[in-house]
Amino acid sequence: MKFEKLFEPGTIGTMKLKNRFVVGAMGVGFAEKTGVQTQRPADYYAERAKGGFGLVITECTRVQTDQFCTPLQPSLSEDKYIDDWKIVTDSVHKYGAYVIPQLHHPGRQYTKVLLGHDTVAPSPIACPTFDEVPHEMTTEEVWETIEAFGDAGLRAKKAGFDGVEIHAGHGYLV
Fold first, then answer.
1. DSSP designation for 170
2. How far apart are the C-alpha atoms of 13 and 6, rounded to whole Å?
3. What is the pLDDT of residues 23-77, one digit of tens each?
C-alpha cells in the first residue's frame, strides 16, 4: 500500500504545509509548575520539525493561570509567557514546519485536591471522572473565560505561532 498523499503539500487556512504529517497535541510535561516553558520543549518540538513534520501542535496550554489539567501544563495566560514560547516557535520554524498551541481549559474535569480550588462548569453537574460537583459559572465568568481564550490566542500570535487549536474534547470545558 502506498501513501503518496502524506508526502504531498497540504493547506490549512493560510498555512501551506510541506507535507501532511502532523504532530498531534500530547502532554509532555516539560513546563514548570508556574506554566513557564523551558528549553526542553523547544528542543523536543524542534526535533519533530527536524524529522520532517509539516505541522507541530503543542500540548494543551492553559488560558487561565489557575485552570490546568496537569501540574506541568504550559501557559499562555499572561504576557510573561510570550518570550519563552517564542523560543519554541523559532526552533520549529527553523526546520520549515508550522507550529500551533492547543488552547485548553479543564472545566469540571479535574480535581479540587490538585487544582487548589473548585472546578468550574456551566452547570453544577458532577464530573463522572472525579465525582466532584463544580462551581456553576456566572455569566461574568463565562465571558471572562471567552476573553481568556481570545487573549491567549493573541499571545500565541505575538509568540510566533501560526494559528491555534481549541481543545474541545474529553469532557473539558469547551
1. T
2. 18
3. 999 999 999 988 998 899 999 999 999 999 999 999 999 999 999 988 899 999 9
Burial of 38 (0-12, 13-18, 19+ CB in 10 A): middle
Three cell numbers, residue 53: 513534520
**Continuous segment of H or E residues that includes residue 48:** helix 39-50
Which residue bears the cell 523559532?
Answer: 90
Is 139:133 a contact under the CB 8 Å cutoff?
no
Q: Please report, as a single letter, which amino acid is at residue 57.
A: I
Catalytically active residues, by annotation:
172
What does residue 154 show for φ and ψ, rounded to 5 degrees?
Answer: -65, -40
66 — phi, psi (to 5°)?
-95, 10
Bridge-partner residues for 55, per DSSP? 22, 98
DSSP codes, 106-159: -TTSS-HHHHSS--EESS----TTT--PPEEPPHHHHHHHHHHHHHHHHHHHHT
Q: What is the pLDDT of residues 80-118, one digit of tens each?
A: 999 999 999 999 999 999 999 999 999 999 999 988 999
Of 117, 127, 31, 126, the C-alpha closest to 70 is: 31
CB 38 within 8 A of CB 30: yes
